[in-house]
Design brief:
By secondary structure, the chain is α+β, with helices and mostly antiparallel strands. The chain has one domain. It contains three helices and twelve strands. The strands form two sheets. Strands 2, 3, 4, 5, 6, 8, 9, 10 and 12 form a nine-stranded mixed sheet that branches. The protein has a three-stranded mixed sheet with strand order 7-1-11, with no helix packed on it.
Length: 245
């Protein structure tokens, strides 16, 4: 009985370990280098297509990257605002590489790391798994508040709230990669992790270049109509009070 329970326990662990696919966002080649840009980011209504000012800095954690994915349907197109549209989940996060300028230092390095929501292959080839779309969103670290952030999910949520509201407290850089698609590694056959960079059997829609992180500037929220109404009532009250005096 104990032996049976032990086997069942090992099977459960194995199933859990293969429930997520394994991908790599680590890259050290300048072929895929990311650059900052004098253009206005598409996230704030710009085209982000002006002159690059240089590769992203090599200071550790100067930039962050969120890898987002969703199930492949064959119909999705990149409209410049994919990171805030419905259907995307956070697969994993990385920061900028310290060795290759403009590079991404993904978790687990070239070996890859489990990616949430990315189905692992069930057979001896990558295409027996779940094919996913993905995009890589990057931003300068100064756009994300530090206080209270202890997990990648909190880090992504902090920048996503700014993207959705369009309100930025400081100037910085923000951008996203082209739309990609492909399979993950792992699974019962322990297929190697696939890199999101380059076109391979595992990543037929892998990224073939870097991308721009373009400028965003501090914004001042416009008061809502109710705020204007309250201000008007306050001013009227002051006038009445002064007349009575």
């Amino acid at each position: 009985m104990k032996k049976t329970l032990a086997i069942l326990g090992l099977m459960a662990v194995a199933t859990l370990s293969y429930a997520q696919g394994i991908v790599s966002i680590n890259q050290g080649s300048t072929v895929y280098a990311n650059s900052t840009n004098t253009g206005i980011s598409a996230f704030v209504g710009g085209s982000g297509s002006l002159v690059a000012t240089g590769l992203t800095a090599t200071a550790s954690s100067g930039f962050y990257y969120a890898l987002l994915d969703q199930a492949y349907t064959g119909t999705l197109t990149d409209n410049g605002t994919l990171a805030i549209s419905n259907g995307w989940t956070l697969a994993m996060m990385g920061t900028n590489a310290t060795l290759a300028k403009g590079g991404v230092n993904g978790p687990g390095g070239a070996a890859g790391s489990p990616a949430a929501g990315w189905g692992a292959p069930t057979g001896a080839s990558y295409n027996t798994g779940t094919e996913d779309y993905f995009i890589l969103v990057g931003w300068s670290a100064n756009l994300t508040p530090v206080a209270g952030i202890t997990t990648p999910a909190q880090l992504w949520a902090a920048i996503q709230s700014q993207i959705q509201s369009g309100t930025y407290l400081v100037s910085g850089y923000l951008g996203e990669s082209a739309l990609g698609y492909g399979y993950s590694g792992g699974g019962p056959n322990l297929l190697p992790a696939t890199s999101i960079y380059g076109v391979t059997a595992g990543m037929p829609g892998g990224l073939t270049g870097g991308f721009y992180l373009s400028s965003v500037a501090p914004t001042v929220p416009i008061p809502e109509p109710t705020v204007f109404a309250l201000l008007g009532l306050g001013a009227a009250g002051l006038l009445i009070f002064r007349r009575r005096k």
